[in-house]
Specification:
Shape: globular
Structural class: alpha/beta
Number of helices: 17
Number of strands: 24
Strand content: 15-25%
Distance between the termini: 55 Å
Largest sheet: 5 strands, parallel
Bound molecules: flavin-adenine dinucleotide, NADP nicotinamide-adenine-dinucleotide phosphate
């Protein structure tokens, strides 16, 4: 049976990529979006909406524009490397307009259920029930892409905090935090030191009377602004470093910890965790140490219990007259509308975090359900490229047993590497996971061939940042502009900061020099191993 009509649920970053990839593969996407516009999480609203992720007004992305863009659509060169949420929306709107995606989206339409059709084992079709303005409708679809995000439903672990029921102050989840104004001159506790906790503590500390940042295990804190002022993902997420990390994880932990401790000693700042650098989802925050050293943020251990007006921490210390508590305790995810996907405490069994392994026909994919060390958007996009070709039967997934083994291996690896926490259930390393998808989709660049045929490009692909364009150099969906996008990426990175033009600068030369030296070392090593 030929797959044609594909239901895309959600029009955030993952949904937009799904629509585009369906069109590229000659499929007919029909996208259902419960809100009135595209953008998902990145479309700020003063009031949190049910069933859609909600962000605070000041959110600036922590993945840089060259690493977060879609692989055949670089962000404009004058866009900042780390965009504010309104700028991300501008980028998504440009993308949607450029590829004419909006006409495929039904806004204000919520998907209530997706069920296998009666003859699913032969057709692989799904019955999608949606609701618009109180009216229900059903659509028979050949395939489904679930793009509903995983930062929507708050994890509010009140049962872990005895006494919260008698606490007289205000408490809320970070999803409901919007602006700092209402906390002016107040004594506030922020619980959790993920990126939400870090950002909110810093923001509040400028106007609140005192901010306490409570963490049960501490964190290694990295900067957005990295070596030579380049974005941290640009400096760190290369194929070369990813290989080193795989071969020598302890060594990389050692250097990463040394580097962040050089900036500020994590022990002296109350943040030192017991785990290694790579055992926790990264906390990225340029300002936290500045706020701690000025005393406006005090780092404290976990909360043992609340009193009616204060809090007792696990080390026995106490703070009275606490007026507000912000639980920056992360998110839970689930797919209540889909009968074939089970989730327990954020644990899910999907092949490559995408495909239910036990379906008779592989006509359903979850997109964007990963927590990468890196950006979600290009990963979602590559997942879509893979899914659409699986739907069409151009790529065959392995048998059920092989998928179960792959899922189990991934779980085992994750549990061994990360500290046990509900936030570490869908972790992936950007380069490794992208390469895994790319191998299945037959779009992984061949490094050896590149070094022989186009050494300049080869050096960038190996030692430079692993930008999404690398996955458009070859194979199905090859983009003619990919080579140029890679060779000009450094210019786009520098352009928005170099706004006062100087006569001479050494930056470009230093990057070229690094690449030349690394390539020379590689060639020498290859020759040495050969002879
Ligand atoms: P979403 O953006 O959540 O979009 C899902 C869409 O589905 C929404 O529009 C929603 O209305 C719709 N929907 C949901 N249910 C239904 C339904 N039943 N029927 C119809 N429509 C439905 N990621 C990064 O890569 N870099 C970052 O720096 C980064 N910063 C973040 C900052 C914060 C504060 C948070 C919370 C997350 C951040 N993330 C970041 C992760 C973020 O989830 C992704 O960037 C991205 O938004 C995921 O896109 P998505 O399309 O998968 O999901
Ligand atoms: P998160 O990463 O899941 O962090 C949750 C924090 O709460 C962790 O410190 C966790 O500690 C703690 N916590 C959870 N349950 C707890 C409990 N019962 N008691 C005490 N502490 C508890 O959530 P998040 O910070 O909201 O981030 C969600 C996603 O959004 C991440 O991908 C993040 O990178 C992204 N984000 C990005 C930005 C940005 O780009 N500027 C800003 C915010 C968020 P443990 O580690 O001990 O579990």
């Amino acid at each position: 049976m030929m797959v044609k009509k594909v239901a895309v649920i959600g029009a955030g970053a993952s949904g937009l990529a799904s629509i585009k990839c369906c069109i590229d593969e000659g499929l007919e996407p029909i996208c259902f979006e419960k809100s009135e516009d595209i953008g998902g999480l990145w479309r700020y609203n003063n009031n949190p909406e049910d069933g859609r992720a909600s962000i605070y007004k000041s959110v600036i992305i922590n993945t840089s524009k060259e690493m977060m863009c879609f692989s055949d659509y670089p962000a404009p060169d004058d866009f900042p490397n780390y965009m504010h949420n309104f700028k991300i929306m501008e980028y998504f709107q440009m993308y949607a307009k450029n590829f004419d995606l909006l006409k495929h989206i039904q806004f204000k339409t919520t998907v209530c259920s997706i069920k296998k059709s009666q003859d699913f084992s032969t057709t692989g079709q799904w019955i999608v029930t949606s609701e618009k303005e109180g009216k229900q409708d059903t659509t028979l679809c050949d395939a489904v892409m679930i793009c509903t995000g995983h930062h929507t439903f708050p994890n509010l672990p009140l049962s872990s905090f005895p006494g919260i029921e008698k606490f007289k102050g205000q408490y809320l989840h970070s999803r409901d935090y919007k602006v700092p104004d209402i906390f002016q001159d107040k004594r506030v506790i922020v619980i959790g030191i993920g990126n939400s906790g870090g950002d909110i503590a810093v923001e509040l500390s400028r106007t609140a009377k005192q901010v306490y940042l409570s963490t049960r295990r501490g964190a290694w804190v990295s900067n957005r602004v990295s070596i030579n002022g380049y974005p941290v993902d640009i400096a760190k997420l290369s194929r070369f470093l990813s290989t080193i990390q795989k071969l020598f994880p302890t060594l990389l932990n050692y250097f990463a910890e040394k580097a962040v401790n050089k900036r500020f000693n994590h022990g002296n700042y109350g943040l030192l965790p017991q785990h290694r650098y790579n055992s926790q989802h990264p906390t990225i925050n340029d300002e936290l140490p500045n706020r701690i050293i000025s005393g406006s943020v005090q780092v404290r251990p976990n909360v043992k219990e609340f009193t009616d007006t204060g809090v007792i921490f696990e080390d026995g210390t106490m703070e009275k007259n606490i007026e507000a508590v912000i639980f920056a305790t992360g998110y839970s995810f689930s797919f209540p509308f889909c009968e074939v996907i089970d989730v327990t405490s954020n644990k899910i069994s999907l092949y490559k975090y995408m495909f239910p392994y036990n379906l008779e026909k592989h006509t359903l994919a979850v997109v964007g359900l990963i927590q990468p060390i890196g950006a979600i958007m290009p990963i979602s996009e590559l997942q879509c490229r893979l899914a659409t070709r699986v739907f069409k039967g151009l790529i065959k997934l392995p048998d059920k047993e092989s998928m179960i083994i792959d899922i189990a291996k991934k779980k085992f690896k994750m549990e061994n590497r990360y500290v046990k926490s509900q936030r570490h259930t869908v972790q992936v390393d950007y380069v490794e996971y992208m390469d895994e998808l790319a191998t299945l989709a037959d779009v992984k660049p061949n490094l050896l061939r590149l070094f022989i045929t186009d050494p300049r490009l080869g050096a960038q692909v190996l030692f430079g940042p692993c930008t999404p364009y690398q996955y458009r150099l070859t194979g199905p969906g090859k983009w003619i502009g990919a080579r140029d996008a890679i060779l000009t990426q450094w210019k786009r990175i520098i352009k928005p900061t170099r706004t006062r033009i100087l006569q001479s600068s050494t930056t470009d030369t230093s990057i070229t020099m690094i690449l030349i030296v690394c390539s020379a070392l590689m060639i020498l090593a290859a020759l040495y191993l050969h002879f």
